[in-house]
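Consider this:
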Amino acid sequence: MPLTKISAPRHLSSSKVKALAEAVQDGLVKTCNVPPNDLFQLISRFDAEEMILDPHFGGVNRSGDACIAEIVFLTGRTDDQKRALFRHISDRAVEAGFRADDIMIALVENSRMDWSLGHGVAYADHHSKA
């Protein structure tokens, strides 16, 4: 059950940012066994001065088109699945016109106890009753 937050420069077209969002969801489905309809994404747009990203940290050359995808999901994916996810997202983003250096991805893992899908009920409690 992932929650994806995409931070993108305001000057990028909506269609280009949507393509990145689709790349992330496609990667989650194809590499991490996420159901296709398990889709929760938040997209935030920022002016250039509001995205302070080191242009060279990590051995890359980020441009003014750099985006960050933060994915919060349940623990349990292997390192190989995570590597495949990174590669898949990057490859799909490049197909959509991004540079590979401009796609940064951060994964955050947690447990079912860390989510509530609504009604003030922990997902861990809801899931155990299903």
